[in-house]
Each structure stands twice: as structure tokens, then as C-alpha cells.
Specification:
single chain, Rossmann fold, six-stranded mixed beta sheet, 10 strands, sugar transport
């Protein structure tokens, strides 16, 4: 379960105040809202990449508000995947484990298992500039899974993909979440995407979180 209580984020002239959000365990939550409303800032706060001024963040009833990002058991896929240009696909997946000084044989085992799961074994020695859009997303997903997270955070992971790849990666996300029994927070501007993946849909508007009832999903306007 994800719980964010009375979160306050100050970012220059922009701020979010008294934000409250609860996502049940193994739910696939989608967060929508206009540009500049603070969706990414809120996700970065959850992941430990942005400081909160006040409030508390819990994962499965554990207060993680002041924990380092790599200790939060959260896998994060930023908007463009953020692959390192100088690392091969295999090295990308291994990167978080290397930072944690995991034993090399354990790293190799994890990389092999995730590459097989994501069907990218053939590109493990390839670099980002030679990968297709779908392959890049699969590598980014594998890297997010490398630390064995309890929560996955996706920031518009499908926005740059064409329709065929969009559907392919969308199906992969749904499969992974079910297989790994993960809790998800997924940012998107697409109601179609939200409807196909989300078990819960939220909207961030004017500094408030609004829960969009399931029966209203088809008619709701952002």
C-alpha cells in the first residue's frame, strides 16, 4: 500500500500543499492532470528524488519519508526511460545492483532472469542508440525491477511510442504487475491508457487529488 499524508512540496514559485493519496496493495493507480499540475513532482517525492517540506510517506505501513531512494523498494521509470548512453542494456539493468554493491554472481543472475522475462536477451550487449523504442522501454522496466521493488512508478512510459508499440508495452506492464504482485502509480495524459490499465484513476487538479469513480471513467474530462 502507498500512503501519502499531508504532503507539502515547495519548488520555486510552485507548491503542492496538504496532498493526501492512498493506493491499496497491488492496485494499478493512474494519476492524470494537466501539464504543470505537479504530477511528476509528487511521484519524485514518493521515490525520494524530491524533498518534501512536510507530511509523511508510507509503503506498506513503513514510514519511508526520510529514506534514501534506493532503500524505498520503489522501481522508477522516468518519462523518457533515462537510459545511460554509455552503458549497454545489460549494464543498465545491473546498475542499481552495482550501486548497492551486490555480489557479481547475483547481479548476473538477476540480469539474465529479467532479460528473459522482458524478452531482451539478444540486446544485452547493445547500447541505447541502437535500440528500438520498445527495446528501450523493456530495458528501463527491467532496470526498475532489478532491486525487487514492492512499488513501481511510471511517468508517461508509453507517450513516445507508436500505436503498435504502445499496445505491446501496455500489455507487458499489465502482465508484469500481475506476475510480480506490485503496487503501481502510473502518470499519463491518456484516458484510453488509464482505462485499459488502471484499477483506480486519480486526477491532480488545483493542488488537490480527485478520485475519478470507475463508472465515470468513460465520460470524465480532464
Amino acid at each position: 500500500m502507498i500512503k501519502m499524508e499531508a504532503i507539502h512540496i515547495q519548488q520555486g514559485d510552485f507548491s503542492l500543499e496538504d496532498i493526501n493519496l492512498t493506493i491499496p496493495s497491488q492496485a494499478y493507480a493512474v494519476l492524470m492532470g494537466g501539464s504543470g499540475t505537479g504530477k511528476t513532482s509528487l511521484m519524485e517525492a514518493l521515490c525520494g528524488l524530491r524533498k518534501i517540506s512536510s507530511g509523511a510517506i508510507f509503503i506498506n505501513d513503513k514510514n519511508i519519508s526520510h529514506m534514501d531512494p534506493w532503500d524505498r523498494k520503489i522501481g522508477y521509470v522516468p518519462q523518457d526511460g533515462a537510459l545511460f548512453p554509455h552503458l549497454s542494456a545489460g549494464e543498465q539493468i545491473a546498475f542499481p545492483l552495482t550501486i548497492k554493491k551486490t555480489l557479481r554472481n547475483e547481479i548476473n543472475k538477476t540480469v539474465t532472469e529479467l532479460a528473459e522475462l522482458m524478452e531482451i536477451t539478444s540486446v544485452l550487449n547493445s547500447y541505447p542508440n541502437t535500440l528500438s523504442g520498445g527495446e528501450k522501454q523493456r530495458v528501463a522496466l527491467a532496470r526498475a525491477l532489478a532491486m525487487g521493488p514492492e512499488v513501481l512508478c511510471f511517468d508517461e512510459p508509453l507517450s513516445a511510442l507508436d500505436e503498435e508499440l504502445h499496445d505491446e508495452i501496455s500489455q507487458l506492464l499489465a502482465k508484469l504487475v500481475k506476475l510480480k504482485k506490485l503496487t503501481v502509480l502510473h502518470i499519463t495524459h491518456s484516458m484510453r491508457e488509464a482505462q485499459s490499465l488502471g484499477s483506480i484513476i486519480f486526477k491532480l487538479s488545483k493542488g488537490r487529488i480527485i478520485n475519478i469513480p470507475k463508472e465515470s471513467h468513460k465520460s470524465y474530462e480532464l
